[in-house]
Write a structure and sequence with these properties.
The complex is a heterotetramer. By secondary structure, chain A is an alpha/beta fold. Chain A contains 17 helices and 22 strands. In chain A, strand 19, helix 15 and strand 20 form a beta-alpha-beta unit. Classes of the chains: A alpha/beta, B alpha/beta, C mainly alpha, D mainly alpha. The structure holds adenosine-5'-triphosphate (2 copies) and magnesium ion (MG) (2 copies).
């Protein structure tokens, strides 16, 4: 590593609607350096990288890059071609592979002129083979990518970037789908390539590999850069603290004796499309008057767990008991009838039908109730009166109960969902990322409601990436990593952070 | 005299053979200054009644068209507009006081063309392609077949209906199939058949219109329909105030000049031509009657 | 650089104004082909107007043409509301018509009070079956219903031709491929003397009002809207997506079948293979024009029928090709499509802000 | 003549290929569009437009190949309308396609009638004639089946090879397949999803139009209303039957052509056991079966019907 700067981000900012994804982020990269970019889910890491690569257009700020002559020039933003031409390669968090093509075609895609009648596949294959040898990454080249394992696909993604003769390689969570051994090999080879002048930015939630393989660490929180540290000076505890921020006050939470179990998982397995969407042989118990916090970096099986509790997914094997009764036909309506209230993770996708009115969204889970319908016709007056009452009670603010729900702000949509869930007096509540994207006030409201439900005797499963939230609300904490659940015996943030990164000793 | 206002309603575009004959006769009358002529083509079945009524409401004096498949509706309209004269191509009879019918009664020239075909086929196989097996098609085919059999008892027919009035590529394919099966003369009831004949170098017999110019060296003879006689008669009756429900079918007979046969002297041997001419005279003199048979014709095997 | 972003909100003016505006623009566009055929523009529009509103007869004819379009438009609108792409209303129409002929031409010689409901029920059942099958193929096998319903149109039409030449063929029809007539007592009563307008229109209007009411006020309607607007949220809320989809399919097919019943037992009296000049396909135009709202369908069907009947009559008066009517109808669909886009999205100019860096 | 005899006759196979030719063009065009992720239901109207404009150009003196070019341009034009509506604007591909069909059809009919207001018989052109190749045309069986077809049939067969070659052996084809599977793969490599899809739809539509042109310039020599008669829709079905492969597309089109040729030949027999409608309907029924099976097939372009917007995740 030498100290020659080759890339500079100058005050990049980006907002999506009301979400500030990046705020005035500046960052430098040096030749031959491996820079790790850390931050909680939603901290804005991917957005920042996408701006370098031209996928997103920054609202403000600029990027400068060293050109072939060694001079420092501004990079034309908003054009992936410009980034590629400048020698930037990016491996995206989500695969950008055409599954109907083989790896070689995927790698060559875009690297060759489209107006040629012939392709030189042999030459390309030779070059890829060389890169494979040099980098130690190998993948079958002649099989359609759809038939490869995720690990192989990940390697194809990296080969794809290296094939374009990159000076700067951006890796967005490259090891999320790799086994630790695969990850080690990958970083070992990347280390070798940096000796030849390659610079690397990689994003990871796994502190172990960050410490082992990076030279420098930059941390983002809520879209802003909160610090940089040389890896030699860092340890896990320090970084974890930088990421999650300073300790905040806990909610005043009365201690309550837990009641009888309200939700039990018995050796439940789900096989999803990938390891991230699968669960293997999970046991779980939630009691009345108890909030069980599930901490973890998203994408470690939380979606599958929530899918099971909300009825969206069916277990392949194992049993689910709600209030002591086995649920045979797992489906949303059965779960609702069994007394499970569900706050979905993606409230726009699963929580509301945006074009339907607030009032309709209030009753959408209890359409068969005699309270809202008679002989298939909605009791409109009752529904409206009820909706008026609930909007007041749960402080749902917006253009009125007749307005389409999509006109509400994110926080008010969440309040609408809370109103729907809590009015049904559920015995069990699934709260999946309930405060994501909410402002302080709205978040506090959610916390208050969850505690009220607990006080009423309900059990709560709280899935969250926000460690503060977990710590302040949960009676017990379990950590989810790689499809497995472990009961945390500690409430220490740093140690929880280590568990979340899969580094439990 | 004041011009008679005539409107025509066609269910197909005016290029279609059958309709083109009516269209031509009306255009001729219009050019002569007898009538004011207006028309609607390609009128969907559903819309036909509306167009009839629209014209009747407009004060058209004579409405001409074809109501095959619309018989009931058309008669209902006529009953509602007794001041308007209707002259409709139809398989059924006239209804008083104002609904007259006509049809392409050119079975006589068809018989004559059959004689030509029967005399000239070498393979003794004649292919016949029709649209739908309806009376107006069937009777011409039967007359043609009678003519051929009268001069050549060994002749065999392959008959096919393409179930469309207007699908030349399909008719052409059908014709190819028959030529492949040995037919050396094609009875061309539809567009497309003569094209196949040209391509395969076999002969064809025309029907309703004279297409000899389009297929030089291919059309041996054609049975041609002339609507002039029918149209002029009807117009005269309307302008004279004497229009009544009647069957105008006879005005398509050869005796009234409604039908005629042309043959290509350069293709048809003189002896055949003279035999046919002789029979033509007999028909005109009323000495020979061509049979009328409306049943669906079928292939010989 | 220009980017397209969804609008946060759409005002009532947008949702109702834009279809109307698109319709007006499409009418104005008709002046281009008019110019080409050398017809005076002003007089042409006047004739068009006269062809629809010029007389009681013209008006009743327009309503007669609108009747099947209301049925097929409703069929398409309800299916599309559930994001079920029913392109097969044309085939379902013929299924309904065939069922009407099967029971209505003499098999049951019963009084009209029994026969008419029987014809309608059988027509609906036949149409519903025609949509239920592709929907089943969709939910069970993932077969795209656009293609299956489209292909079924042809299969049904071929089947119809077979029936018209065989079992249905009118023995009195002199060889024409047409069915025997529906018994007199089986015909839907006409609405006016000397006019073709028949009580099918009343049934269509009742269907539209019912559909509007059921969509807005019934549990079924709410479920249908929910699975159409956001299937994921609907499923999360416990709505059975496939079951609701199937119910939408059945109602949609039944409405298309009613279009066939109304044309056969209301207008023509017997069945031919050219009963419908594409009412099923035009139904799609009608439904889109209506923004998929049932009452909107009535307005759109009347608009399309007016354009068609008006342009048709105008072409007759001005000596312009009658294909103009179809041209205007298709332009209005494209205009409405683009209009719908403008209502939902906005174009944002992205200006790269260069900050002065010292 | 029994079925076996028909099936063995050269004229039957020649007819199958002839009937298949417009379908080959259409199915290849639809295949290109769908490979890039865009369903093009405008095909039926584009056939009509191709048939009308190609014929009209020849009639006005453009020459046969000039007519082919004009037809392709017209097809490309209507394809562009569909592409603009569905690619950057992301509107419903179903509705836009049907809209294009209605529009292209009515524009063609209207212009035909306006250009030729008072014809009593459709004006004819001198169409493509069957090629007479020395020696080859005289071969037994293959002579009549292959070497007495018109140039457009040869063009269609050549197109099968060309489309196969482009899709499987050129960078452009690889990119088209990629954009139909996962547009992000294209975007991530700095290529334009919009340009690729628009280009594919325009090119595919141009090819479709040639199918229409074949009808008026080779199968027949004049333009008729309603002469396309559902052939476009058949192609939509055949693409699925062919599971998006050019070679199988040729096979499917030939199969369809064979059914049709057989149907015509059987109808001339007296007392054929099966009604001719069975043969007419068979290709459609087969296509639905194929769709049921293919819906989960690996060849299904995964991004078909899904609009893609830049910078949205
Ligand atoms: N295209 C987009 N449209 C709308 N919001 C977006 C978009 N991209 C990112 N966001 C939002 O911006 C914020 C930052 O997202 P980003 O993907 O950069 O986070 P991240 O740090 O990469 O998180 P993770 O670790 O989960 O990948 C999030 O709130 C996200 O929802
Ligand atoms: N987000 C989604 N959007 C649309 N469909 C979905 C979604 N998720 C799952 N499905 C599909 O919905 C179907 C099941 O839905 P649901 O259980 O609501 O229907 P159902 O009416 O109960 O059907 P059935 O009676 O056949 O079980 C499954 O085929 C599933 O693949
Ligand atoms: Mg990320
Ligand atoms: Mg189910």
């Amino acid at each position: 590593m030498n100290s020659q700067k080759i890339l500079a981000l100058n005050g990049l900012s980006k907002t999506f609607g009301s979400v500030i994804a990046n705020h005035n982020v500046s960052l430098d990269l040096y030749r031959g350096e491996v820079l790790a970019l850390l931050g909680e889910n939603g901290a804005g890491k991917t957005t920042l990288m996408n701006m370098i690569f031209g996928h997103y257009m920054p609202d403000s700020g600029s990027v400068d890059i060293e050109d072939t002559s060694g001079a420092f020039v501004p990079l034309s933003l908003g054009h992936p071609q410009a980034a590629i031409a400048a020698g930037i390669g990016m491996v995206h968090q989500h695969f950008t592979l055409a599954e109907n093509l083989d790896a070689l075609d995927n790698i060559m895609l875009g690297a060759e002129r489209l107006n040629r009648l012939r392709r030189n596949k042999a030459a390309a294959r030779g070059k890829v083979k060389d890169i494979m040898k040099e980098s130690g990454l190998s993948a079958p080249l002649t099989v359609p990518v759809g038939q490869l394992t995720v690990g192989e696909r990940q390697r194809v993604e990296i080969l794809k970037a290296l094939y374009r003769d990159v000076k700067i390689l951006v890796l967005d969570e490259p090891t999320a789908v790799l086994t630790p051994q695969e990850a080690d090999t990958l970083f070992g080879n990347i280390g070798k390539m940096t000796k030849n002048g390659l610079s690397v930015i990689f994003i990871s939630h796994k502190l172990r590999e960050v410490l082992a393989f990076s030279h420098r660490i930059a941390v983002l929180r809520h879209g802003a850069k909160v610090g940089e540290i040389a890896t030699s000076q860092a340890d896990e505890r320090k970084i974890a603290r930088m990421m999650v921020g300073s300790e905040t006050e806990e909610h005043t939470r009365k201690l309550m004796p837990p009641g009888k179990p309200i939700l039990c998982f018995e050796k439940v397995s789900v096989s999803g499309r990938s390891r991230r969407e699968s669960l293997e042989c999970i046991d779980l118990a939630v009691n009345e008057c108890e909030i069980l916090g599930i901490a973890g970096v998203s994408g470690n099986g939380q979606t599958a767990l929530a899918g099971l509790i909300s009825g969206m997914l069916r277990p392949n094997t194992g049993n689910i008991f709600v209030d002591g009764v086995a649920v045979k036909d797992v489906r949303p309506s059965v779960m609702v009838d069994a007394g499970v209230g569900r706050i979905p993770e993606d409230r726009h996708r699963d929580g509301i039908v945006g074009t339907m009115s607030v009032a309709e969204n209030m009753i959408i889970e209890c359409l068969d109730d005699q309270a809202v319908q008679r002989r298939g016709l909605l009791k409109w007056d009752t529904i409206q009166a009820q909706a008026e009452k609930m909007t007041v009670k749960y402080d749902v603010r917006g253009p009125g109960i007749e307005a389409p729900a999509q006109l509400l702000s994110g926080g008010n949509i969440q309040k609408l969902i809370l109103a729907r869930v809590f009015e049904a007096k559920p015995k069990l509540i699934l709260a999946n990322q309930p405060t994501r994207g909410l402002d302080m006030g709205a978040a506090a409201d959610v916390a208050k409601r969850l505690l009220e439900a607990r006080a009423r005797g309900a059990g709560v499963v709280l899935i969250s990436e926000d460690l503060d939230e977990i710590l302040s609300l949960s009676d017990r904490i379990m950590v989810m990593n790689d499809g497995e659940l472990t009961l945390a015996k500690t409430r220490d943030r740093a140690e929880l952070g280590l568990l979340m990164a899969g580094d439990a000793e | 005299a004041e011009k008679t206002k005539v409107a025509a309603i066609y269910t197909l575009p005016v290029e279609q053979q059958w309709i083109s004959r009516i269209h031509k006769a009306l255009n001729t009358a219009a050019e002569r200054g007898d009538i004011d002529y207006t028309f609607s083509e390609n009128v969907a079945n559903t819309d036909y009644e509306r167009v009839m009524r629209e014209y009747a409401e407009q004060g058209q004096q004579l409405i001409i068209g074809e109501v095959f498949g619309l018989e009931r509706a058309a008669r209902k309209v006529a009953k509602d507009y007794t001041d308007t004269a209707f002259l409709m191509g139809s398989s059924f009879g006239p209804v008083g006081p104002n609904f007259s019918v006509f049809d392409n009664w050119i079975h006589e020239p068809s018989y004559l063309t059959g004689m030509v075909a029967g005399s000239m086929t070498e393979t003794n196989v004649i292919g016949m392609i029709g649209g739908y097996a309806i009376p107006e098609v069937n009777r011409l085919m039967h007359a043609f077949m009678d003519g051929a059999r009268d001069v050549n008892p060994d002749v065999k027919f392959i008959v096919n209906f393409i179930d469309s009035w207007y699908d030349p590529p399909k008719a052409k394919e059908s014709a190819f199939a028959m030529i492949d099966a040995g037919a050396d003369i094609m009875y061309a009831e539809r567009f497309g058949v003569s094209d196949a004949a040209v391509e395969r170098g076999v002969k064809a017999i025309g029907n309703v219109i004279d297409t000899a110019g389009d297929y030089p060296g291919t059309i041996l003879a054609s049975a041609i329909w002339h609507m002039e006689a029918t149209v002029d008669k009807a117009v005269a009756h309307v302008s004279g105030g004497s229009f009544e429900a009647a069957d105008y079918g006879q005005y398509s007979f050869m005796a009234f000049g409604g039908g005629s046969m042309v043959l290509d002297e350069s293709l048809v041997p003189a002896d055949v031509a003279s035999a046919v001419k002789a029979r033509e005279v007999e028909i005109l003199d009323g000495l020979f009657r061509v049979n009328v048979n409306d049943a669906r014709p079928s292939s010989d095997n | 650089m220009i980017r397209i972003e969804p609008r946060q909100s759409s005002s009532a003016l947008m949702t109702y104004g834009i279809p109307v505006l698109s319709a007006i623009i499409s009418l104005l566009l008709a002046s281009i082909p008019l110019t080409f055929s050398g017809a005076p523009i002003g007089a042409s529009y006047f004739e068009m107007f006269k062809g629809v509103f010029g007389s009681k007869f013209a008006f009743s004819e327009m309503l007669t043409r609108a009747t099947p379009l209301i049925f097929t438009g409703l069929a398409v609108a309800l299916a599309f509301r559930a994001r079920l792409w029913n392109i097969g209303a044309e085939g379902q129409l013929y299924l309904g018509a065939m069922a009407a002929v099967a029971v209505g031409t003499g098999v049951f010689d019963v009084p009209g009070v029994i026969l008419i409901p029987m014809i309608m029920v059988m027509g609906c059942v036949a149409g519903a079956t025609g949509m239920a099958v592709p929907t089943l193929l969709k939910t069970k096998f993932g077969a795209d219903e656009v293609v299956t319903t489209l292909l079924l149109n042809f299969i049904i039409l071929i089947f119809l031709q077979y029936m018209l030449e065989g079992p249905f063929k009118d023995p009195m029809g002199l060889g024409w491929p047409q069915s025997s007539p529906i018994l007199d007592q089986g015909m839907l009563p006409p609405l006016m003397d000397r006019m073709r307008i028949h009580s099918g229109l009343i049934i269509a209007l009742i269907c539209a009002i019912t559909a509007q009411f059921m969509l807005a006020r019934s549990v079924w309607g709410l479920k249908l809207r929910a699975i159409g607007e956001n299937p994921s949220a609907a499923r999360h809320a416990g709505i059975r997506v496939n079951r609701t989809l199937m119910s939408a399919a059945i109602i949609s097919g039944a409405l298309a079948g009613m279009a066939g019943v109304s044309e056969v037992a209301g207008l023509k009296g017997y069945l031919t293979s050219d009963l419908s000049p594409g009412f099923g396909y035009t139904g799609i135009v009608v439904a889109m024009l209506a923004g998929l709202s049932p009452l909107g369908v009535v307005a759109a069907a009347i608009f399309i029928a007016s354009v068609f009947v008006g342009a048709d009559s105008m072409s007759r008066a001005m000596g312009v090709s009658s294909y103009l009517a179809d041209l205007v109808v298709s332009t209005s669909l494209l205009c409405v499509l683009v209009g719908g886009f403008v209502a939902r999205f906005k174009f944002v100019r992205l200006i790269q802000k260069k900050e002065v860096t010292q | 003549m029994d079925i076996l005899q028909i099936l063995l006759s050269e004229s039957f196979w020649a007819a199958s290929l002839r009937i298949a030719t417009p379908l080959i063009f259409g199915v290849l065009g639809a295949l290109i569009c769908e490979k890039s992720g865009v369903l093009n239901l405008g095909i039926e109207g584009i056939f009509v437009a191709g048939a009308m404009t190609g014929w009209l150009a020849v009639w006005l003196g453009a020459g046969l190949w000039g007519g082919v070019l004009v037809a392709a341009l017209a097809g490309g034009f209507f394809g562009l309308i569909h592409a603009v509506l569905t690619v950057p604007l992301g509107l419903s591909q179903h509705v836009s396609g049907l809209g294009v069909t209605l529009f292209a059809t009515s524009v063609s009919y209207f212009s035909y009638r306006t250009a030729l207001p008072t014809v009593t018989s459709p004006p004819r052109i001198e169409p493509f004639r069957p090629l007479d190749m020395p020696f080859l045309s005289d071969l037994p069986f293959f002579g009549p089946v292959l070497f007495q077809q018109t140039a457009l049939t040869w063009l269609a067969l050549f197109m099968v090879g060309l489309v196969w070659y482009v899709l499987n052996r050129t960078a452009l084809g690889i990119a088209i397949k990629a954009v139909g599977d996962n547009p992000n793969s294209i975007d991530a490599q700095g290529l334009s999803v919009y340009a690729l899809r628009t280009g594919a739809v325009v090119a595919g539509s141009a090819l479709m139009a040639l199918g229409g042109a074949f009808l008026t310039m080779s199968a027949f020599d004049a333009f008729f209303f309603g002469m396309v008669n559902g052939r476009g829709w058949v192609c939509i079905a055949l693409v699925i039957f062919a599971s998006w492969r050019p070679g199988k597309a040729l096979l499917g089109a030939l199969l369809f052509g064979a059914f049709d040729a057989l149907q015509v030949r059987l109808q001339t027999e007296v007392g054929a056991l099966v009604p001719s409608q069975v043969f007419l309907a068979a290709p459609y029924v087969l296509s639905i079966f194929a769709l049921v099976i293919a819906a989960r097939s690996a060849d299904y372009p995964r991004a078909l019907l899904t609009p893609w917007f830049k910078g949205q995740r």
